[in-house]
Amino acid sequence: MPTISTALTVVAFVTFAVIGAILAIIDIRTHRLPNRLVATVGVTGVVLLVAAALTGSRMDALIRALLAALVLFAAYLVLRMLSAGGVGGGDVKLAAVIGLHLGWLGWGSVLVGTLAGFVLGGVFAAGMLLVRRADRRSAIPFGPWMLAGAWVAIVLTVSRP
User: Fold this and answer.
1) CA separation (Å) from 103 to 86, 127, 153?
2) Which one of 27, 77, 105, 136 is CB 3.0 to 4.6 Å from 141, fit for a cystine?
3) What contacts 11, CB < 8 A, 6 or more positions away?
4) Predicted local distance difference test score (pLDDT) of residue 132
């Protein structure tokens, strides 16, 4: 029988999956990540993971998750400042949410998820260029690739023996 801490963690990740899928669809269609949805998944994640940490003696995971959220937020903020519109504000905020969830699992998950997002997005962009469906100035939503990369890391982490 799962513990309360485990159940809260599962609910946090299921919420992240459901709202993340909605965010990906919206970003593909509109090139926007609505603040209300990003904030909802972020606040829900914080509340549920704090509760999971308190009920399951997982303060180390909570501290790591909060630090990872801050690190990814800062890294994407720097990317936003250095890129000429290539990284949007929604991507920066979503990075914090992704950092929170991947940080709960470990620093390796943060690294794998972040890198996987860039690799998946890059492969997609290269494919679009190759088939001439995009050029160097085409806007490609990055949120779906950030989320896909996060789920690559989550699946790899959870499926480890």
Assistant:
1) 25, 31, 11
2) 27
3) 48
4) 85
d(CA 55, CA 5): 5
Range of the domain at 130: 4-158
Predicted TM-score of the model (pTM): 0.95
- Read out DSSP for 87-101? S-HHHHHHHHHHHHH
Q: What is the pLDDT of residues 11-43, one digit of tens each?
A: 999 999 999 999 999 999 999 999 999 999 999
Residue 38 and residue 97 in contact, taking contact as beta carbons nearer than 8 Å: yes
Tokens of 123: 């492969």
SS3 for 2? coil
Judge contact between 37 and 147, C-beta under 8 A: no
